[in-house]
Design a protein that fits this description.
Helix content: 25-40%
Shape: globular
Radius of gyration: 18 Å
Order of helices and strands: HHHHEHEEHEHEEHEEEEHE
Number of helices: 9
Structural class: alpha/beta
Strand order of the largest sheet: 1-8-2-3-7-4-6-5-9-10-11
Largest sheet: 11 strands, mixed
Distance between the termini: 37 Å
Number of strands: 11
Strand content: 15-25%
């Protein structure tokens, strides 16, 4: 697995917890050009001119396997905007992804996994600076998130009053797990969607996590696209999940694949482990 240089030297860092703008994407060409400027790219003339046909195609497609590279990112972005579920490789495991602001798509992920609605989903964003749109980070030391992310770590934060997340995502919880995977493909999709991706491991609830697409072949039919990134080398432990909701304190909720590196970063910033109560 490729991690940023600043992390690679310390090995890896790591709530692989795990849905679209409601309704079809009915954007016209000029609106797409405006959105391209707003998002800093990610849309092409081909995508703008083909959206209506894409809408129809997405209604019929299931389980189409495509390479997980940026040449096919437009298909992934269109599916997310249309409220569909896709399967993608991350820097740890394969996951199901959809628009975190689409209740219908989120519910579909729960159905696919056979997962209880009381089990929270994490979100994935394209860049560290996007996190403040969805969660409160003012209480964290400056630079901390930039050292932890991108990488195989999920930070659990309070949503805060300014979060644009739908209240229907993880109802009853005032916190949210956030990932910035060290994967250019999934980060490109998150940026292009203009939203956050709800993300969860691509498997049935209680079954082993997936490190290749064959591991969840029986679930392909529930996704419009399955993006193949080959065999992931990280093993099946998933990301390290760390609760940073309290000022100056951390709590490891799941060891994951990079607990030691994560704790080392937290200690450099004088974040102390919360005592058990």
């Amino acid at each position: 697995m490729n991690f940023p240089a600043k992390i690679a030297g310390r090995s890896t860092l790591a709530f692989a917890l795990s849905p679209s703008l409601t309704g079809p994407a009915k954007l016209g060409f000029f609106k797409l050009l405006h959105q391209k400027r707003r998002l800093g790219g990610g849309f092409s003339y081909k995508m703008a001119c083909g959206l209506n046909k894409c809408d129809l195609d997405l209604e019929r497609k299931t389980g189409v396997v495509l390479p997980a590279n940026e040449a096919y990112a437009e298909e992934a972005i269109a599916a997310i905007k249309f409220g569909k579920v896709i399967a993608v490789p991350t820097d740890t495991l394969y996951g199901f992804a959809c628009d975190a602001c689409s209740t219908e798509a989120v519910n579909r992920i729960y159905e696919i996994k056979g997962r209880k609605q009381t089990s929270p989903l994490a979100i994935s964003v394209g860049d560290v600076q996007d996190i403040s749109r969805f969660a409160a980070i003012d209480h964290l030391p400056h630079g901390l998130l930039d050292e932890l992310l991108p990488g195989p770590v999920t930070v659990v934060l309070r949503r805060g009053d300014s979060s644009i997340l739908e209240k229907s995502l993880n109802p009853g919880l005032d916190s949210i797990g956030v990932r910035v995977p060290d994967s250019n493909f999934i980060r490109f999709i998150a940026r292009g969607s203009g939203s956050a991706l709800a993300l969860t491991s691509a498997n049935r609830s209680g079954q082993p996590s997936s490190v290749c697409i064959k591991d969840f072949e029986d679930l392909w039919e529930h996704c419009v696209y399955v993006f193949d990134g080959g065999l992931l080398p990280s093993g099946r432990s998933g990301s390290t999940v760390v609760d940073l909701t309290d000022i100056g304190k951390y709590k490891i909720l799941r060891p994951g694949s990079a607990m030691e590196e994560t704790v080392a970063v937290l200690k450099r910033y004088s974040i102390e482990e919360a005592t058990a109560t």
